[in-house]
Amino acid sequence: MIKLILSNKPRELTPQMESALIEQFENDKTDPVWQKKFIKDAVFEIAYGKCAYSEVRLKEEGKDMQIDHFYPKVPYSKKVVEWGNLLPSLNHCNRHKSNIDPNTVEIVNPLFDNPKEYLYFQNGFLCYKNVKGSNTINILDLNNQVYLNSPRVRLLAEIGKTLKDIEPWKDLDIAYFLQRVKDVMHRGSRKMAYSAAVSTFILKHHLYEQYKSFLTGKLMWDSEFISLEKELEFCSLPK
């Protein structure tokens, strides 16, 4: 989970349209008024095409997006299409969150909370810093072995192998080595799957630290590296 920045609401979602959709839903609680295409398309972009909670990439390999109402539709019918209450979600997370009321049980809202204050990653396993973090992990089942933890761990192992494989190139072809290090760092950027886990892993990896020291010593740690590292720091969830 990373901190998300709420985009401007769709221009079609005027106050008049919002009021009409709320009334429509209150007249028929089975009417999915939030499924308007312009709403779904805009919600999908909020988390860069990922689940706002698990960071699984949506619309790939059958992972359809569901719209999660952070404050559930019932009893919060006035928020049924409120911009900022709608989050893109993996079916797994949405199903587990169900109708949990955040006013009763605190959970992290990546649009308005900073996940760094509540969560951290340790070897691909999401851990909590406090009760709100614990609630979030347990309610959303964010360490599910099959759907979330195993894919994260496999990805981290792959990235660790890549970091090791590129080591000889710093002596054989420095330009190629530079590009490969940047490519690895890019995999922890906010638009990538599991970016919080990946960025945390990279920043703590001994080879990354060695490569940074090596390139800094050769005055090759340029502005692009600095920008990429800032991106990793933004996404990471350190202890």
Averaged pLDDT: 96
Q: What global shape is seen? A: elongated
Order of helices and strands: HHEEHEEHHHHHHH
- How many domains make up the coordinates? 2
Contiguous helical run count: 10
Could you give the distance between the termini?
14 Å
Helical coverage, percent range: 40-55%
Q: What value does the Rg take, in angstroms? A: 20 Å
Record field, number of beta strands: 4
Judged by helices, strands and strand pairing, the structural class is mainly alpha
Strand content: 5-15%
Largest sheet: 2 strands, antiparallel
Strand order of the largest sheet: 1-2
**Segments where pLDDT lies below 50 for 5+ residues?**
none
Protein name: HNH endonuclease
Structure, described:
This protein is mostly helical. It has two domains: 15-140, no CATH class; 145-235. The protein has ten helices and four strands; from the N terminus they run ααββαββααααααα. The chain has helices spanning 15-27, 37-46, 91-97, 131-140, 145-165, 169-172, 174-186, 195-204, 206-217, 223-235, and strands at 65-69, 86-90, 119-122, 125-128. The strands form two sheets. A two-stranded antiparallel sheet has the order 1-2. A two-stranded antiparallel sheet has the order 3-4. A hairpin with a 2-residue loop joins strand 3 (119-122) and strand 4 (125-128). Helix 5 (145-165) runs parallel beside helix 8. The longest helix has 21 residues, at 145-165. The model has no long low-confidence stretch (mean pLDDT 96).
